[in-house]
Amino acid sequence: MRVQPRAWIAVAVVAGYAAIMGLTWFFTGTDYETVGSTAANAMQGIVLPVALASLFTAAVTYWLGWWGPALRDTPAGPRWLLLLPIFLVLTAAGNLLGHGFEGIEAQLVLTLALGTLLVGFGEELTLRGVSVVALRGSFGEVGVWFFSSLLFALLHALNVFFGQSAAATLEQIVFAFVIGSALYVVRRVTGTLVICMLVHAFWDFSTFVGGASTGEATGFAALALFQYAVVVVAIIGLVLVLRQGRSSTRHSRVAAA
C-alpha cells in the first residue's frame, strides 16, 4: 500500500464522489425524479455523472495502491450465506419482471443498463471497496460495517437537492443502509467486490425499469417477496461474519504487501 488506511480517507473519497455527482447534476440541470424516464435523461443524470465519479474513485484507488484489498477479501461465514446474493437477485428480478418492459423504449433500457453498471462499479468501489479498506485502519470490523453502510446511506441524501422529496429521501437513506449492510455481507462471504458490483447494478437496473414500465402486474412480481429473506439472512450474516473480527484486515494487508 502506498498510503496506510485511515478512516478520514473513506470520508474524503465518498465526499469527492458525491461532489462530482452533485456538480454534474447542477450544471446539467438534472431532476432526480425524472432521471430514468427517457434515454436522454438517463444519459445526462446517470451515465455521465457516475462515469466521472467512478473515474475519480478508480484514480484514487490506483494512487493509494489499494486495488488488491479493495477488490478482494477473506471469505467469512458459513457457505449457506451465499444465499444472500441469490435472494438479492431474485428480489430484483421480481422488480424487473413484475410489470414487464411495456412502454419502455429499447434505447432507454440500454442506457439504463450502461448507467447502472457504472453505478454498481463506482458506488461499490467507493463504499465497499476503498471505504472498507480505509475504515479498517481505524476501526474493528463492526465499525467498518456500520460506517461504510452509513456513508452509503448518506450518499443518497444528495438526491433531496435535485428534486426528490425530503420524505422519500429519508426513506431511501434508511433503505440504503439496509441494502448497504447486505452488500457488506456479500463482500465478506464471497471474498470479492465484483459480486457486489454486479448485484448492485442489477438491483438498480430493475428499480429503474420497474418504475418506468406501464404494464400490469405479472406473476413474477411475487419474487419481490424475497426482500424479506434478504433482511433476515443479512442480519444473521452480519452476526456470523462480524464474529471473525479483523481477519479480513490482516489478509488485506498481507495481500497488499
> Nearest-angstrom radius of gyration?
18 Å
Unreliable stretches: 252-257
How many separate domains make up the residues?
A: 1
Major sheet attributes: none
| Count of beta strands | 0
The oligomerization state is single chain
What is the end-to-end distance? Answer: 7 Å
Beta content: under 5%
Strand/helix succession: HHHHHHHHHH
Total of DSSP H or I helical runs spanning 4+ residues: 10
The outline comes out as: globular
Structural class by secondary-structure content: mainly alpha
Helical proportion, percent range? over 70%
Q: Name the average pLDDT.
A: 91
Question: Features of this protein?
Answer:
mainly alpha, 0% strand, disordered C terminus, 10 helices, 257 residues
Molecular structure report:
With 257 residues, the chain is mostly helical. The protein has one domain (7-256). The protein contains ten helices and no strands. α4 (83-97) runs antiparallel to α9. The radius of gyration is 18 Å and the shape is globular. The N and C termini lie close together (7 Å).
In short:
The chain has helices spanning 7-28, 39-64, 67-71, 83-97, 106-135, 141-155, 166-190, 193-212, 226-242, 247-256. By secondary structure, it is mainly alpha-helical. It is globular and about 50 Å long.
List the helices and strands and how they pair.
Elements: H1 7-28, H2 39-64, H3 67-71, H4 83-97, H5 106-135, H6 141-155, H7 166-190, H8 193-212, H9 226-242, H10 247-256
